[in-house]
Design a protein that fits this description.
This protein is of the alpha/beta class and 376 residues long. It contains 15 helices and 10 strands. Helix content is 35%, strand content 13%. 50% of the residues are buried.
Length: 376
């Protein structure tokens, strides 16, 4: 059940109109509206990370469906950082052909393009990578701790992946620092037990993210867009610490947008000492200068998207609703009160919305999302 602490603002009607207005970023092209496609795992690409026709179709269908920014699923920056089967890669020049084709089509559709840069860390499946890696030895997952040289190589590979995305014609990249993957593992004092300058204090644990941001800024063009995704809970993360990291990213102004993944934009924090207000409000009240702020988490209706804008965000990040309808932004433009189809939906519905059979199979792992045809 969704919490009630997130109240609809009297400004919601104005926010509903604002959803369809352009959003400028400090660098690069403006978004034609305030809808960003969330980076959604889909397991559709080839084993070596090359883009498949199925993933190309899925993503470009969303670009033509009206999203102001179309973002890839998490794309791994090292082969050893693969997080799931069928993951898009950005770790080698062999990926350039598919990435270039994708960036070109997204631009032709009138959408801004972005690659999400990712390394799964201790969440990498052993059958894909062998022994996974982590900031420190992690008996729970069997991951081994990275050496200092390997941490520096990881930083450099994030930066190299951004350069590769720029070469392919993408407007920008998003650095994935959320959901318990490797950059979030560095942020977590429960996971990161390093004793060098990448462990210990919050400043040290956040160092890798800031070095990646600095490196991308130094290595890519002045109009290349850069976002960071953070999540403030789970996986050993503490709200106060993630809020501080967010505040520093906003204050420095080296990123163009901050993408907060909140699981549910209406919820209160898990930590009792922070309850009594929405989790989102801990980020909308931070000074942000020219950096744009968006949020993801169960935005399933036009009213949900407008409420996120009314609460102080600059854009709404759409996940499940974009799986259900490739043209969610256009539907909301036609009908401000638009609601996503009720769950579960049929496999045929998802196929009609551009998901491949493999993607539909993956979606069956989400409880209550795909109907059991035998019972239908």
């Amino acid at each position: 059940m969704r919490d009630t602490v997130f109240q609809e603002s009297p400004m919601t009607n104005d926010a509903a109109a604002l959803l369809h207005e352009p959003l400028t970023l400090t660098r690069g092209p403006a978004l034609k509206n305030r809808f960003m496609l969330a980076p959604l795992t889909n397991q559709q690409s080839h084993e070596d990370g090359r883009l498949s026709d199925e993933e190309f179709h899925w993503l470009t269908m969303r670009a033509t469906g009206g999203f102001g920014l179309t973002m890839t699923a998490a794309a791994h920056v090292q082969k050893a950082g693969q997080g799931f089967a069928g993951q898009l890669g950005v770790f080698g020049d062999e990926h350039l052909e598919g990435l270039t084709r994708l960036a070109t089509k997204i631009r032709e559709a009138g959408s801004v393009s972005s690659v999400q840069l990712h390394h799964a860390g201790n969440r990498s499946p052993k059958d894909l990578v062998g022994t996974p890696v982590c900031p420190s030895d992690d008996p729970a997952s069997g991951a081994r701790g990275l050496t200092l040289d390997e941490v520096e190589q990881l930083r450099d590979d994030f930066i190299a992946a951004a350069v590769r995305a720029e070469r392919a014609g993408f407007d920008g990249v998003e650095v994935h620092g959320a959901h318990g993957y490797i950059l979030a593992q560095f942020l977590s004092a429960e996971i990161n037990h390093r004793e060098d300058h990448y462990g210990g204090s919050l400043e040290n644990r956040a160092r890798l993210i800031f070095e990646i941001v600095d490196g991308i800024r130094a290595s890519c063009g002045t109009d290349f867009q850069l976002g960071v995704r953070l999540s403030p809970e789970r996986f050993g993360l503490k709200l106060a610490e993630i809020r501080e990291v967010a505040a520093q990213l906003l204050a420095k102004g080296d990123i163009d947008y901050l993408d907060m993944s909140l699981w549910d934009v209406t919820k209160e924090p898990y930590e009792e000492e922070h309850q009594g207000r929405s989790l989102l409000s801990y980020f909308t009240d931070l000074p942000r200068g020219d950096v744009r702020l968006g949020a993801a988490g169960k935005i399933m209706t036009g009213a949900d998207a407008a409420a996120v804008i009314a609460a102080g965000c600059d854009f709404a990040v759409i996940g499940r609703a974009a799986i259900l309808r490739h043209d969610f932004p256009k539907r909301v433009a036609r009908e401000a009160a638009y609601q996503s189809p009720a769950l579960p939906v049929t496999a045929q519905h998802l196929l009609d919305e551009g998901l491949s059979p493999q993607f539909v199979t993956y979606m069956r792992n989400w409880p209550g999302f795909v109907a059991d045809e035998l019972a239908a």
